[in-house]
Write a structure and sequence with these properties.
The radius of gyration is 17 Å and the shape is globular. The termini are close together. Strands 3-2-1-4-5-6-7-8 form an eight-stranded mixed β-sheet, with helices on both faces. Helix content is about 35%, strand content about 15%. It is of the alpha/beta class. The structure holds NADP nicotinamide-adenine-dinucleotide phosphate. NADP nicotinamide-adenine-dinucleotide phosphate binds near residues 44, 86 and 218.
């Protein structure tokens, strides 16, 4: 269940990045340590995803468009920082170079997202639509394309796309679900696209695990703090998908209760 309708390159450490093939730390559960990049990792669900993966013994890169915010979060958590604006091809390419030079990547969490305009249909503009789609959809494409060469060198290549139940056709047509009560044309359409991108990438990249996570309605800046879940609850699905070690199904849509309809 979700209702996230919004209310209104340089590593921090000079040491080499670990990966499933070159890790220096082991997760508490005994699984192989991986190296994960979380886009939009400086706050909200991305930051909590980074914190939990670090706590589990993984190596984490926080990608953030703002260097000060990103570096501060990385320093607080003990993560690595890389400047990464998902709307900027050069920034994404530079981030991929930085992470490749530091040892590679096993898990890409495409988390960065914006709510976009909440104007009425009479006032929505093409520019409003392009802004949301550039970050939420093209951002996933840019980042995935840039990091595929690194993921292909991993023994456990994994992509987790952070989508939303608000982009689920099943959920928005189910009168018993809160998603059916939300009107946010651009944001919801962008998340439908993220979920379909996930399905299509899963078909195109059978050598990887590509899945979509619905956090559920979580209190973050995206919705002015109105979500009923904590960020820890909101990252259950993301963290679960990011820690499967390259195993399990691909092309699924998962919330914190398990596989969900989309
Ligand atoms: P948030 O607290 O607003 O965090 C969004 C993050 O994305 C921030 O770190 C932000 O960076 C970053 N970001 C935005 N544009 C970016 C860009 N061009 N390049 C790189 N980073 C960028 O929101 P959140 O709730 O944690 O959202 C995280 C993801 O969860 C989003 O994809 C959202 O759609 C999804 N989601 C959220 C909920 C919910 O209820 N909260 C539910 C379902 C899905 P700045 O600090 O620089 O702005």
């Amino acid at each position: 269940m979700t209702n996230d309708a919004p209310a209104t390159g340089t590593p921090a450490s000079s040491s080499s990045s670990s990966s499933s093939t070159s890790s220096s730390t082991s997760p508490a559960d005994g699984a192989s340590a991986t190296t994960t990049l979380v886009t939009g990792g400086n706050k909200g669900l991305g930051r909590e995803t980074a914190r939990r993966l670090l706590e589990a013994g993984h190596t984490v890169w926080i990608g953030a468009r703002d260097e000060d915010r990103g570096r501060a979060a990385a320093d607080e958590l003990g993560a690595r920082f890389v400047q990464l604006d998902v709307t900027d091809d050069a920034s994404v390419a530079a981030a991929a170079e930085t992470i490749a030079a530091a040892g590679g990547l096993d898990v890409l969490v495409n988390n960065a997202g914006i709510s976009g305009s909440h104007s009425s249909p009479d006032q929505l503009t093409g520019a409003d639509a392009l802004e949301v789609l550039d970050t939420n959809v093209a951002g996933v494409v840019r980042t995935t394309t840039a990091f595929l060469p690194l993921l292909r060198r991993s023994s456990a290549p994994t992509i987790v796309n952070v989508t939303s139940g608000l982009g689920s056709f099943a959920a928005v047509h189910d009168a018993d679900r809160v998603e059916s009560t939300v009107v946010a044309p651009l944001y919801t359409a962008s998340k439908s696209a993220v979920t379909m991108l996930t399905v299509q990438y899963a078909k195109a990249l059978p050598e990887m695990r590509v899945n979509a996570a619905d956090p559920g309605y979580t209190a973050t800046d995206l919705n002015g703090g109105s979500g009923h879940q904590t960020v820890t609850e909101g990252t259950d699905a993301v963290v679960e998908l990011a820690t499967r070690g390259g195993t399990g199904p691909t092309g699924t849509f998962v919330d914190r209760s398990g596989v969900a309809p989309f």
